[in-house]
Design brief:
heterodimer; A: mainly alpha; Helix Hairpins; Cytochrome Bc1 Complex, Chain D, domain 2; 10 helices; B: Cytochrome Bc1 Complex, Chain C; about 75% helix
Chain lengths: ~280, ~240
């Protein structure tokens, strides 16, 4: 379709508008009928999901703040929020899984900026500005190759990100329940993006496998604080981690590398204060 | 001579005329109902009204939930328990609000996909798309702020993660995070701030933008499908 001048475009629209108004059908009752049926289907779906969800409910808890379990549509509610928990596996609502997964992909400190700001902002601007980017008069999607690619690609990418986001290993759901596990994860200091450590559910391959390396507290503390020259391991002190955060995550690695085989050799009480000061949720940057 | 006695039909017309004379609402509403829409629009063009229905469900159940909900760290969870376990049909109200939000997001994607595939955002409907995109962002913000209010473990930790993700963004990130948290740490004010945004500020914005969006749709006319046979037959563009 050839490009149109502004005037041609306006006239074409007005011709189309007059034509549709002349030959169209009245909104009531035709469109209203379809709209009403769709709305009733929507209401039925919402109520149906609610009833299914409710039918799976277990008994109400007897103790204060307890959870009430549910069926495959999830619990009625989990236990009352407890900011002191160190081992809870935090997950967003399903429609934020794709963002969550983006952050997992761009999880190294250098790329974090991409995941948190650049990609989401670009998507947002692209969405808002789309009608000003695609200004040709052609409306058939078969003749709009870029739109066609976006229309096929976007749902696939979103569904794939949502799916892998929902399958993501626990962020802070370490078997050990150690508060350092959350610091180890991508939402904490980001150790997990380079190192493998089974307890933390981490499978990074850039740095050594910590389950094999099995460092003691002093070594871990030294490497995290100062980095290691000649390797990709950087100084987290220079990167702005607090002494408490470093002590907490070092005590975690020392105790729980190699599946916690030498957990008893690390005096956790000694580092509990550091973990607490580092932020019990472990997600403080 | 006494004026003639009006018939019942004429009597019923009196309040209608009174309103019409002072507001024009009667003829306006007749225009809305009986305006012509393209002959070949069908089910795909009903997703928007499905969204309005979902919004109305969210608004109604939201008002009912607000009658029982207490936005304080001590009261929030037990009021949710009360609504779910004890209040008559409370589980239904909360469930419809919860699943309504899921339906809202799904319908938004479908509606947006339909408009995108049919190229309905093209001249002169660019602003209709932009107001819709703003609605999309506001609805996502609604789900973010609503998620915390249940105040169980899942709600709390998901919100902590979401706020920390925000906080890790450069320049504005820490400020937004502090604004949402009301200070450097999560506190009782976080919950009431989320509550206020969720039930007062953002719904107001959504209503305003739905109004604008609909006004544009009615003013510009519903676009007929690009493959319209009806239009081709008539030898039009």
């Amino acid at each position: 379709m050839p490009r149109m001048t502004a005037r041609e475009r306006r006239e074409a629209y007005q011709r189309e508008y007059q034509f549709q108004k002349k030959t169209g059908k009245p909104f009531f009752p035709y469109a209203v009928l379809h709209d009403t049926i769709t709305s009733l289907v929507v209401v039925a779906l919402i109520m149906g999901l609610t009833i299914l969800w409710h039918s799976g409910f277990g008994p109400a808890p007897t103790e204060a703040g307890g959870e009430r379990p549910g069926g495959f549509l999830g619990p009625a509610y989990e236990a009352q929020a407890d900011p002191g928990t160190a081992s809870y596996d935090p997950r967003p609502e399903w429609y934020f899984f794709f963002l969550f997964q983006l952050l997992r992909i761009f999880s190294t400190p250098e790329l974090l900026l991409f995941g948190t700001i650049i990609v989401p902002t670009m998507l947002m601007v692209l969405m808002l500005a789309w009608p000003f980017l695609d200004r040709g008069p052609e409306r058939r999607v078969s003749r709009r190759p870029v739109s066609m690619a976006l229309a096929i690609g976007t749902p696939i990418v979103l569904l794939a990100l949502t799916w892998s986001g929902s399958q993501a290993p626990a962020v802070g759901g370490a078997a050990s329940g150690h508060a350092g596990a959350a610091l180890f994860a991508d939402t904490g200091l980001g150790c997990a993006s380079c190192h493998t450590l089974k307890d933390a559910g981490a499978s990074g391959t850039v740095g050594p496998v910590l389950d094999t390396l099995n460092p003691d507290y002093k070594t871990a503390l030294d490497f995290i604080t100062n980095g290691k020259a000649g390797t990709a391991m950087q100084s987290y002190k220079a990167k702005g981690a607090t002494a408490d955060q470093i002590a907490c995550v070092a005590s975690y690695v020392a105790a729980w590398a190699n599946g916690g085989a030498k957990a008893a050799s690390v005096d956790q009480a000694k580092y509990a204060a550091a973990c607490k000061a580092a932020g019990a949720d472990g997600t403080t940057k | 001579m006494a004026p003639p006695i009006p018939s019942p039909k004429e009597l019923a017309q009196i309040p209608v005329d009174w309103i019409e004379e002072r507001s024009g609402l009667v003829s306006g509403h007749k225009y809305l109902l009986f305006r012509n829409v393209p002959k070949d629009i069908s089910w795909l063009q009903t997703l928007g009204s499905g969204l309005i229905t979902t919004f109305l469900i969210q608004a109604t159940t939201g008002v009912l939930l607000a009658m029982y909900y207490q936005p304080t760290p001590d009261g929030a969870f037990s009021s949710i328990q009360y609504i779910t376990d004890t209040a008559t049909l409370g589980w239904m109200i909360r469930g419809m609000h919860k699943w309504g939000s899921t339906m809202f997001v799904i319908l938004l994607f479908l509606h947006m996909g339909r408009v995108f595939l049919m190229g309905s955002y093209k001249y002169p409907r660019e602003m209709t798309w932009v107001t819709g995109a703003v609605l999309f962002l506001m609805v996502m913000f609604m789900s973010l702020t609503g998620y915390l209010l249940v105040f169980d473990q899942r709600a709390y930790w998901a919100s902590v993660v979401a706020i920390n993700i925000n906080g890790s963004a450069p320049i504005l990130g820490p400020f937004i995070a502090e604004f949402l948290k009301v200070g450097p740490e999560f506190s009782q004010h976080t919950l009431s701030r989320f509550y206020s945004l969720h039930m007062l500020a953002v719904p107001g914005g959504i209503m305003a933008f739905i109004g604008l969006h609909l006004w544009l749709v009615i003013r510009l006319g519903v676009s007929s499908p690009p493959w319209s046979k009806h239009r081709a037959k008539a030898g039009e563009v």
